[in-house]
Amino acid sequence: MTRAEAYAPGRVELLGNHTDYNEGLVLGAAIDRGVRVAGELRDDGRVILQSTMMGEIDISSTDLAPQTAHTWANYPLGVLKELRAAGCAISGFSARIESDVPAGSGLSSSAAFEVATALFILKLVEERMPPLEIAKLCQRAEQRFVGVQSGLLDQVCSIFGRKDHVVYFDARSEEVRAIPFPDNLALIIAESGTKRELTSGFYNQRRAETQAAADALHVSALRDASFEMLASLSPLLHRRAAHIVGENERVARAVDLLSRGDGASFGALMNESHESSRTNFENSTGELDSLVEIARQLPGVLGARLTGGGFGGATVTLCEAAKADTIAPELQHRYAARSGHEPKIFVCRIAAGAG
Predict the structure, then answer these.
(1) DSSP string, 263-313
(2) Catalytic annotation present for 20
(3) Which of these is catalytic: 58, 154, 170, 289?
(4) DSSP code of residue 329
(5) What's the predicted TM-score (pTM) here?
(6) What is the spatial distance between Cα 67 and Cα 64, in angstroms, rounded to a whole number?
(7) pLDDT by residue (tens digit) across 121-143?
(8) Would you give the DSSP letter of residue 177?
(9) Roughly how many angstroms between the first and final C-alpha of the chain, as a whole number?
């Protein structure tokens, strides 16, 4: 019986919030938490998925359709459908899924699940596909089968991640570059206690608003816009576009700061990014704002912001590496005292990509 196993990490977004689907610039990194998919081929046309967290589903692979009772299964089923459309000959399989990426935390458990599934199936049928094509296939699965009109950052970081390196991604040119992350800096991930649910429509709404702003400016994407061009927009579209334009500029500046090891200035850009998310893009929450506010008060913290799509989820804090192990529990204690939530907080290690 043909067996296979694959692993893909989650990711943390450092700068470039909602810029990928606007053909912009992003900085992210693969993290030391991910999704593992292991199993074997079946010759009866069944797809059986087992997850200790989500349960089990057993369906026929002859007529794949989005699931309403087991929505978590739509990620691997969507990948299967896209692989078949790309010519991958597979009838069915059994798979066991293990994950230590918190679902709904903004750390891209969905993209990790998609990438791990794609690599698992490709190994089962002994086929290969270029890494960027795998990322695009997983993105199509999320857009067409799950219904989230996501960008490409999450899958790119999961696949192209490199240990102790930040992933720079230009969504227009599709350039992917690994930039060393200074060893005197560390990242702390803090869950807010409120899960985000992108399929609820907020993400797709923001995508529609940014496209409306681009259309009003007569550009193909907000990548081509500048602050000077935004004066003609309505107040709402002005705020949305200002966030994207500002994020692209912050990423461009951050690349140079990282190369010079300027953690303080990089942290300042993260602070600016969160303020823009809060006021211009309105994808922050009271819980995320509290985590950011508390983090910025702690000695050794250089910057903090929400990470990922927003509307709940987690924050990322940049700090001095030597103080990370004392900052994390203090952040947890202060946030719990203020909010009543007991957040999961951990020092994040920047990890290698999928394999």
Answers:
(1) HHHHHHHHHHHHHHIIIII----HHHHHHHHHHHTSTTEEEEEEETT-SSS
(2) no
(3) 154
(4) H
(5) 0.91
(6) 9
(7) 999 999 999 999 999 999 999 99
(8) E
(9) 21
